[in-house]
Amino acid sequence: MDALVWTGPRQMEFSEMERPGASPGWVVLEVKAVGICGSELSGYLGHNSLRVPPLVMGHEFSGVVVELGAGVSEEYLGQLVTANPLIACGNCKACNRGNRQLCKERKLIGVNFPGAFAQFVAVPARNCFPVTNIVDGALAEPLACSLRAVNRVRVEAGDSGIVIGAGIIGLMAMKCMRFMGASQVIAMDTNELRLEEAKAWGATHLINPKQPDAQQKIQELFPDGADCIVDAVGSERTRQQAIAAVRRGGRIVLIGLHEDPTTVPGNVIVRDEIEIYGTFCYSDFEFARAVTFVNDGFLPGGERSWLDLRPLRDGGAAFEEQVSGTARYPKIVLQP
């Protein structure tokens, strides 16, 4: 089968490799669509310790079930599905509570197992969920990440929010914030094209942090600070921006993974009783809910200027375009 293989920092090879088989309890999907995740960009650059080359990445995908492992019901065959890429022990306290993302033994399709940047991918049958649309089905995974982030800051009706970063996770977080009742949401990004896209996702105000009056604009809109903030970038600067912009007793969630070491004003956090959360991905419930959302048409429709579909063969160029900062689209989805 054809596959896009990451072989080292900034190196992708489109090559032929053996098609995976279906182990007991697993199925093989013929991949129909697979998104490029921001965490895979850091992997591509060699900055992600979880990913080791050579590796077929790809954990946001949809596909048709074409092969069944032993013990898997025949009803799966021929279904268009997406899959929760998390694989956990299933026996620990976290797994028993539906929080497999916290399992110490957790593994990921596209990290610890070959992913979906290929014609075929093998996944556990129990992780599969039927979807109604090839592309939207592949976007259930990033939506689940955004849903988890917004859940962690407990958005309520009438809340004010800020989302730092207008990549697909940030855009989806804006949509989730508004869905949960936020009356105003500021979108912040240094890329004007992406910032403009935020309007379609529910942003009520757009601010480029490079502008000299950016902080003043935030203070004018939210004099007491924002109720809840999502940092979907993950740099020292954006984490500090979030703390500076949140109200006393406000909530911040960090989902971006751009930088690791970060200096923050500890006394401000203590004195203002600011709540700061981290989120890696999603619970079982949140993934299932995200699938329901995409099947119900939750994602913006129309021309979808935020999305670009490309052949898998062009994946290497797509990765390079995104890490260089020249990408026009917040989301690129590849199709074998």
Automatic annotation (TrEMBL):
Keyword flag Metal-binding: yes
Name the domain of life.
Answer: Bacteria
Question: What keywords are annotated for this sequence in UniProt?
Answer: Metal-binding, Oxidoreductase, Zinc
**What cofactors does the UniProt entry give for this protein?**
Zn(2+)
Tell me any Pfam family this protein matches: ADH_N
Q: Which residues form the Alcohol dehydrogenase-like C-terminal domain?
A: 169-294
Keyword check for Transferase: no
Report the PROSITE patterns cross-referenced here.
ADH_ZINC
InterPro entries attached to this UniProt entry: ADH-like_C, ADH-like_N, ADH_Zn_CS, GroES-like_sf, NAD(P)-bd_dom_sf, Zn_alcohol_dh
Q: Where is the Alcohol dehydrogenase-like N-terminal domain?
A: 24-131
Residues annotated as transmembrane? none
Q: What family is it from?
A: Belongs to the zinc-containing alcohol dehydrogenase family.
Q: What is this protein called?
A: Alcohol dehydrogenase catalytic domain-containing protein
